[in-house]
Amino acid sequence: xxxxxxxxxxxxxxxxKAVLFDAGGRAVARSSCTLPLKTPxxxxxxxxxxxxxxxxxxxIAACLAEAGPEAGRAVAAVGLAGHGDGLYAVxxxxxxxxxxxxxxDTRAEPLLAEWRGTPVWSRALELSGTVPFAGSPAAxxxxxxxxxxxxxxxxxxxxSCKDWLRLKLTGSVATDPTDASASFTDMRHGGYSPELLDLxxxxxxxxxxxxxxxxxxxxxTVTREAAALTGLTVGTPVAVGAHDVDAAALGLGGTTPxxxxxxxxxxxxxxxxxxxxxxxxxxxxxxxxxxxQWMIMSTSPASVVNLEWxxxxxxxxAEHRDGxxxxxxxxxxxxxxxxxxxxxxxxxYGSPHPRPTSGTFLGLRGWHGRGHLLRALMEGVVxxxxxxxxxxxxxxPVTGAAARLTGGAARSEVWSQxxxxxxxxxxxxxxxxxxxxxxxxLLAATAVGLLDDVTDRRAxxxxxxxxxxxxxxxxxxxxxxxxYQEALEVLGPVWARLAAPGATE
Length: 505
Fold this sequence. Notes:
- The protein has 505 residues and is an alpha+beta fold.
- It has 18 helices and 20 strands.
- The protein has helices at residues 49-67, 71-74, 109-115, 119-128, 137-147, 149-154, 161-170, 177-180, 194-199, 224-230, 244-252, 305-314, 324-333, 370-395, 413-423, 435-447, 471-490, 492-499, and strands spanning 5-11, 15-22, 27-34, 46-47, 75-82, 88-90, 100-101, 157-159, 218-221, 237-239, 242-243, 260-264, 268-274, 284-287, 294-300, 343-345, 360-362, 403-407, 427-430, 463-467.
- The radius of gyration is 22 Å and the shape is globular.
């Protein structure tokens, strides 16, 4: 059988997706498995690493089964993408030494408070293009060195999510420039920086960082054990892959420098590819999949994850047989006329702001119902994205082209329109439903020669919808944004007092 298919795997914070594509990037089968996050203590957000692998191999097996009994033999290569930051630590035998810590974890906040205003902060920004946040490898490893030193003594490799999955698929340890630049690589020259590691007091861990290979390189082949679990063929090449943010840009076709891409998923991710590094504490500068280019992204754990929280607490719509996003859209459309009477700060799991914040509804009255709360939640998520986009546009040559939107919010026409209105720029949604998985698959296709490169015209994405900003709704959201920002300032001391009793190191 000809090997003309590629498999893209995207391991997010809660859902792992496996999508089978033809060489042109058209999806032919897909599956996903969900793994809820665990919060064993306040501020701790973790995942069992064996469960992460289980959801991945189950998703792959289900995807191949959907495609047919011979699908595994038709896969030419596998590509991987995964959530960035966090920490997946393994010992010499490749076994986890503790639960994985994900990027939404905030246990290291007290360490950040110690570092702010010191040379650690300014020098880290200068060298790496980013200041640490609570879920970054730098902060988490420093926290472990202080509170769980035995974990680091047992550890042999310090991995990211996708690199853990590659280890399970192939037995090989590696990473790529996009994930490697989360905390410890030189922004301008690449490669791990001994000065950065020493800056965080982590110089002794240098030998635990995985080797860095090109995103489109083959880093190993599927083992017999992994083949038995997944249905893939023993010896199938596995590409190195990329951080899901970069993979999503590839999958969407958003690879032109200066073009704005928005990922509204667990995180609010707002990104621009640049041909030179531009440093600002409001964003992260990381190496892109192509040498000589940088991914500049302004992010926070404050996007569609708020809707997931809301539905978990309040329950789904009574009738959603035609899809959850369609049902929620109808609830919101019924309450969309007039000004924004209810305001929501989407900080249930964190925010882009250094001061304490939390998820907050303001303006509630007795006549407001579930639809008003959902409208406020959607608008709050969009306004947080606007904060990030305004930051990027203040210093970067962002083009006037339509922004590309993907993630959970892109599945809702109502929510997609809110982005166009709040940003006062067109927003396009492509026919790519799983952009990060598709980007990973394109890297795999390039690795084995099915495509010339990841921008091969044969794999171009098609625009599905285009949303133009509506003047009336844009004015409403302009006013909502002013109130949003004013409340952000006023509520600072209140949020700080609420956070104090639960503060923990």
